TrEMBL record:
Organism: Corchorus olitorius
Keyword Transcription regulation: yes
GO biological process: transcription antitermination
Entry keyword set: Transcription, Transcription antitermination, Transcription regulation
Protein name stated in the entry: KOW domain-containing protein
InterPro entries attached to this UniProt entry: NusG-like, Rib_uL2_dom2, Translation_prot_SH3-like_sf
CDD domains assigned to the protein according to its UniProt record, in alphabetical order: KOW_NusG (cd06091)
Region spans: Disordered: 49-69
Domain of life: Eukaryota
Gene3D superfamilies in the record: 2.30.30.30
Length: 130
């Protein structure tokens, strides 16, 4: 019985260490992204200083976002579209309405054998190439 408790405790300690390492990694990523520098005072107090010169962001866009911007002009009612982000990501459906003024698109998906209409942002859909 003690061996089981000892093993469970060891597994819990390993899980806690992995969690702490993950949290540290997220903090460093956030600090790098926000250009923050952390300084430790003599009193043990951590202070953060925002870098005065912002870092340059990459000019390369993700393929799906770039394709969405390029193909939005070719979207016409009745065309097959693929959702690239959001709740319905990777779903394929038929474009029913496109309101370029508001940036909204109504797409029909076949779910459980019945067509369901969903209103999405036009930037979240791209023309289906298949």
């Amino acid at each position: 019985m003690e061996a089981i408790f000892r093993q469970a405790k060891e597994e819990q300690v390993k899980a806690d260490q992995a969690f702490e390492e993950e949290q540290q990694a997220e903090k460093t990523l956030t600090a790098d992204k926000l250009n923050l520098e952390y300084n430790l005072d003599s009193n043990g107090v951590i202070t953060s200083v925002l870098d005065s010169k912002p870092r340059r962001q990459s000019r390369k866009k993700s393929d799906t976002v770039a394709n969405g911007a390029k193909t939005s002009k070719r979207l016409v009612t009745g065309s097959m579209v693929r959702v690239v982000s959001g709740t319905f990501a990777e779903f394929v459906g038929s474009l029913k309405k496109l309101n370029r003024k508001t940036g909204k698109a109504t797409v029909g998906f076949t779910l459980f054998g019945k067509e369901s209409l969903v209103e999405l942002d036009a930037k979240d859909i791209v023309l289906e190439t298949k």
